[in-house]
Every structure is written in structure tokens, then in C-alpha cells.
Design goal:
Layout: H1 2-23, E1 27-33, E2 41-44, E3 50-53, E4 59-60, E5 64-71, E6 77-83, H2 85-97, E7 103-107, E8 110-113, E9 124-128, H3 131-141
Antiparallel strand pairs: 1-3, 1-4, 1-7, 2-3, 5-6, 6-9, 7-8
């Protein structure tokens, strides 16, 4: 019986190591548009909609001080992202320029969210999406 638990523990450890290795990657925020923009890259967004995305990152995971899991009142899981001082400045510039337009949240080069900016954002933002993507974002941003 003890041997069985050792094997199960080893399998769990291997699984967790695999998850952690897969979580390594990059998180970026980029300006995006629902309409063609010269010089921008066309990419599939959430739900299969096509977006045009700037080829330049406005923010990266280096601009994030910390991230934490949260649950909204409707039960939806989110990741709250708190920016560094420099990141807050960059986010304010990006969000001000993108009011009424989407901002693409890329994880390992793929768009996982593309919210429409409603107002200027500076110190903190919330990312929503699939549980798998949110878990990967949290693992990547744990500092």
C-alpha cells in the first residue's frame, strides 16, 4: 500500500512539473483594432474574431508587480494584475490611446483576451478568460 502512494505522489510531482514548465512563456499587452491597420499583424482573437494587433508590445510581464486570482460576484474567475510604477505609466498611455478600442492580451504569442477599453487604466487591471489561460497567467506572473 505504501508503494502505491509513493507512485501516486511521484506521478503528481511529474504532472505539476510539466504544468510549471508549460506555464513558462511571455505575457504581453498590445494595441489592437477591429479594423485593418497598416503594419499591424492580423490575428485570431477570442471567439474566432479577427483582430489587427500592433507588432510592438506596450507592456510585458516585466511591467507587472504581482498577480492574484480573484472571483467576481457572478462566480467568474479572473486574474488581477498590479503594475509596477513604470508599468502603470505605460498602461495609462496605452489605455488612454485605446479608449473605445480593444487591447490584446497575448500569452505566448496568442490572444487570450481583447477587452474594449472604457476608460484610462493605470495601477491595476483584471484579465478574464478560460480557466486554463488564467492558470497559466498566474503561474507566469508569480514573483
Amino acid at each position: 500500500m505504501n508503494c502505491r502512494w509513493i507512485v501516486i505522489d511521484a506521478l503528481v510531482a511529474v504532472f505539476l512539473a510539466g504544468v510549471l514548465l508549460q506555464a513558462q512563456g511571455s505575457l504581453e499587452l498590445r494595441a489592437a483594432s477591429s479594423f485593418a491597420v497598416s503594419g499591424w499583424q492580423q490575428m485570431p482573437g477570442p471567439g474566432g474574431t479577427m483582430l489587427w494587433v500592433s507588432t510592438t508590445s506596450a507592456l510585458t510581464d516585466a511591467d507587472i508587480a504581482r498577480a492574484e486570482a480573484r472571483t467576481q460576484s457572478d462566480g467568474q474567475r479572473t486574474v488581477a494584475v498590479v503594475f509596477t510604477t513604470d508599468g502603470a505609466r505605460k498602461m495609462a498611455q496605452l489605455s488612454t490611446a485605446q479608449i473605445g478600442k480593444p487591447v490584446a492580451v497575448l500569452l505566448d504569442g496568442k490572444i487570450i483576451a481583447a477587452p474594449i477599453v472604457r476608460s484610462s487604466i493605470a495601477n491595476e487591471a483584471t484579465i478574464t478568460g478560460t480557466t486554463e489561460n488564467l492558470d497559466r497567467v498566474l503561474l507566469l506572473l508569480k514573483k
